Task: inverse folding
């Protein structure tokens, strides 16, 4: 029987393919939705905080933010209290893109969970939340505190 990681990876890769298809007429990549949703929820977040929040290494965050900035979705500004810290803000273009991103996420979730009852979905969410808690505990260095 395949491992839990295998199932999660397959779901993730298929989700990327789905987002890629839905975003093909935009200048967004398949992972940019995570950045934009997080930045719009947390305007002025530092690049380092963003990396920790979405569990992506700092160099990948910097690279993806450069693309988003070039395409007009975000602005990066130095912190007024520490010029070494870059703060990230959404632009109007990012805010205007949120409905599309939320629709894509909703449609994907609906598609993959179509055959589940509400009870099964709640059970699945609960189990996935527990797995995510353990995974993030590992990533944060607090897994068994």
Result:
């Amino acid at each position: 029987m395949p491992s839990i990681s295998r199932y999660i990876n397959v779901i993730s890769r298929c989700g990327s393919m789905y987002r890629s298809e839905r975003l093909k007429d935009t200048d967004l990549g398949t992972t940019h939705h995570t950045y934009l949703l997080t930045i719009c929820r947390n305007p002025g977040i530092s690049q380092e905080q963003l990396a920790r929040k979405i569990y992506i290494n700092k160099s990948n965050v910097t690279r993806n933010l450069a693309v988003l900035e070039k395409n007009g979705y975000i602005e990066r500004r130095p912190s007024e209290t520490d010029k070494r810290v870059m703060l990230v803000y959404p632009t109007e273009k990012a805010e205007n893109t949120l409905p599309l991103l939320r629709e894509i996420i909703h449609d994907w979730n609906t598609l993959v969970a179509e055959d589940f009852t509400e009870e099964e979905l709640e059970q699945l969410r609960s189990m996935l939340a527990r797995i995510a808690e353990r995974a993030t505990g590992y990533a944060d260095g607090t897994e068994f505190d």
Q: What stands out?
A: The CA atoms of residues 135 and 141 lie 10 Å apart. The beta strands are 45-46, 74-78, 86-90. The two ends are 31 Å apart (CA to CA). The chain has six helices and three strands.
